TrEMBL record, chain A:
Signal peptide as annotated in the record: none
Domain ABC transporter: from-to ranges: 21-241
Keyword set, alphabetical order: ATP-binding, Nucleotide-binding, Transport
Organism field: Cognatiyoonia sediminum
Tagged with keyword Transport: yes
Presence of keyword Acyltransferase: no
Protein name: Tungstate transport system ATP-binding protein
Single GO term (MF): ATP binding
PROSITE patterns from the UniProt entry: ABC_TRANSPORTER_1, ABC_TRANSPORTER_2
UniProtKB/TrEMBL annotation, chain B:
PROSITE patterns: ABC_TM1
Residues in the signal sequence: none
Protein name in UniProt: Tungstate transport system permease protein
Classification via NCBIfam families: ABC_perm1
Domain of life, per lineage: Bacteria
GO terms of biological process kind: transmembrane transport
Length: 247, 235
């Protein structure tokens, strides 16, 4: 952020963060099960927020709701001024049966990037993902980590102000994990808000500014990362961090 | 038995000598069936894809209709078109009866439902795989259709070959609307039927052999056209 001292806005202390992403009482039921059970959260428009919670808590579902891919049964998702449009990297990314380059070109086309600007943007994305060397290879023949990196920069093709990442480093080796974490950090440093789902506690500690803890379709806790890992408040989070089985 | 071998010998002789009558028939067959195939694909690929990606009232009925139409008996299609194009028919002014155009129309009617139904199935499978990803990237419906059609191209090539096979092999419809007129509407299958009934086994056999070679060649071409690295690249 490059805010100079003289333009600091005067904010009344009680005013809500108009830049935030606000989730108001999001509910989603399916065949009598409340998969999302009144999710309430106000997520700041900058930094990296991690969304943590046990398997089946509803993390991926919540990301889909934020992306408007799934309509909640009730509740509203409101994007503050800080967000123009979100992009999502799925837990299991699906690439087209084309080259790496063609996948990115396709994404740029969908993102309405003018033809003249595409090749420049494409080269940037390839560099960001460290895939320049593999640009002509079939995307589906890339290794898992390479596919993840490609999926992340593909999501960046639309220049999103909010990037949702669903376990981007699950099943990757340490160096591939590090490559992706670097990419996440750089993206965040470039001003993109990131919401990251992860089961990797060390990763959450390394990257997160704040933690949203989702349990049984509800936000059980939303605190700063340091606080969360040192002294979780909710029983559910305590149990999760202690490795207890949460059902 | 001697007749049998003689017939084969004469058949190969006809093919080897490049008999103009034979070549004329083969070329007309190719022209009719390939034209029908291209038009059926132009109609069938987008309609099949649209049926897969869109949701509107009556969609299921349309899908069922095209599925059922895959099994249309060619003679019934031929008869229906005959009634439409004949002197007393509503489309008599077009003067299409006993022309190659009428045969092309008959084959389009026969193979378009096949192209539509197979395409719809292929695209529906790909939509299940790519749909959410494409929606997350804000693809419009036409963009989705184009992306999935391109994604499906190896399967669509096979679909086209199935359609071509059906077009080439078909006798009943083109016989009725084409009339099997020498040098005008006589194609391979109708000639084979005619020559066989006349006892001209050599000509019938020669045409049959060419028909087989074309079928084998088409399949080989598709195999060769498919990306060699498919197993590796398109997991
Ligand atoms: N399309 C769907 N139809 C029915 N149930 C679904 C659907 N999608 C998700 N669910 C259910 O909703 C619950 C939450 O799923 P979700 O994928 O959001 O979990 P998650 O928190 O991402 O878990 P994980 O850590 O394993 O990825 C699960 O019990 C799942 O079975
Ligand atoms: Mg998940």
């Amino acid at each position: 952020m490059s805010e100079s001292a003289e333009v600091v806005p005067i904010r009344p202390s009680i005013r809500l963060d108009t830049d935030a992403l606000t989730l108001t009482d999001i509910r989603l039921s399916h065949e009598g099960r409340n998969l999302l059970d009144g999710v309430i959260a106000e997520i700041s428009s900058n930094g990296i927020t991690t969304l943590i919670g046990p398997n089946g808590a509803g993390k991926s579902l919540l990301l889909r709701v934020i992306m408007d891919l799934v309509k909640p049964t009730s509740g509203v998702v409101e994007f503050g001024d800080g967000f123009e449009h979100p992009a999502l990297v799925f837990q299991r990314p699906i690439l087209l049966r084309r080259s790496v380059r063609a996948n990115l070109n396709h994404a740029l086309k969908l993102a309405k990037v003018p033809k003249a600007d595409r090749s420049g943007r494409l080269a940037e994305l390839l560099v960001a993902a460290d895939l320049t060397r593999l640009a002509e290879n079939p995307a589906r023949a890339l290794s898992g980590g390479e596919q993840q990196r490609l999926s992340i920069v593909r999501a960046l093709a639309s220049n999103p102000s909010l990037l949702l990442l669903d376990e981007p480093t699950a099943s990757l080796d340490p160096s591939a994990t590090k490559a992706i974490e670097d990419l996440i950090r750089n993206t965040s440093a470039a001003g993109v808000k990131i919401i990251l789902v992860t089961h990797n506690r060390a990763q959450a500690k390394r990257l997160a500014d704040d933690v949203l803890f989702l349990h049984q379709g509800k936000i059980a806790e939303h605190t700063l990362a340091e606080k969360f890992f040192q002294a979780p408040q909710s029983d559910a989070a305590k149990g999760y961090l202690a490795g207890d089985l949460l059902l | 038995m001697q007749d049998f071998f003689d017939a084969f010998q004469q058949a190969f002789a006809l093919i080897a000598s490049g008999d103009p009558e034979l070549i004329g028939i083969v070329l007309l067959s190719l022209r009719v069936s390939l034209t029908a195939l291209i038009l059926a694909c132009i109609i069938g690929f987008p309609i099949g894809a649209l049926l897969a990606v869109s949701n509107f009232p009556g969609r299921r009925a349309i899908i069922l209709f095209f599925n059922a139409a895959m099994g249309l008996p060619p003679v019934v299609v031929g008869l229906t078109l005959y009634l439409l194009f004949s002197q007393a028919g509503p489309l008599a002014v077009l003067e299409l009866l006993y022309t190659p155009t009428a045969m092309i129309i008959a084959q389009i009617v026969l193979i378009t439902p096949i192209i539509i139904s197979l395409t719809r199935g292929t695209i529906a499978g790909l939509l299940a795989e790519h749909g959410e990803t494409l929606r997350a990237m804000r693809a419009t419906r036409p963009q989705m259709v184009m992306t999935l059609l391109r994604e499906a191209h190896p399967a669509l090539l096979t679909t086209a070959v199935v359609g071509l096979g059906r077009a080439f092999a078909e006798v009943g419809a083109v016989m009725i609307v084409g009339g099997n007129i020498n040098h005008v509407t006589r194609v391979m299958t109708t000639s084979i039927a005619l020559e066989t009934s006349r006892g001209e086994l050599a000509m019938a056999l020669a045409l049959g052999i060419i028909l087989l070679i074309i079928a084998l060649f088409t399949n080989a071409a598709v195999y060769a056209l498919a990306p060699r690295s498919r197993e590796l690249a398109h997991v």
